[in-house]
Amino acid sequence: MGDSFGMNKNYQPGDIVYVMFRNPHAQDVATVQAAAVVENPEEPGKLCLFVYETFYPLDEEMAVFNTAEEAREAYEDVYGRVDQGEFYG
Q: What is the pLDDT of residues 16-45, one digit of tens each?
């Protein structure tokens, strides 16, 4: 599985990573989404994730994966496979 929590890699601005992102308005809806690693505009010198036109902290609360495949596998572990009728998200 990926870099659980995103803290095990030295990310650089411009890196593209993948996260499982839950819809804040519908907790039973989740998706794998590409995110850009960028400099945090509110904390110079720190990195954050930019996804859905919003900045998110790059911290232990965000599961970060290096590849879309790793993120998809983790998604299926949590939510089941869409093509097998096990989809929960």
A: 999 987 777 876 777 889 999 999 999 999
What ranges do the domains of the chain cover?
4-81
Q: What is the pTM of this model?
A: 0.74
Q: Coil, helix or strand for 21?
A: strand
Q: What are phi and psi of 21, to 5 degrees?
A: -115, 125
Nearest 5°: CA angle at 82, between 80 and 88? 50
Both tokens assigned to 75: 């998604």
3-class SS letters over 25-74: CCCCCEEEEEEEEEECCCCCCCEEEEECCEEEECCCCCCEECCHHHHHHH
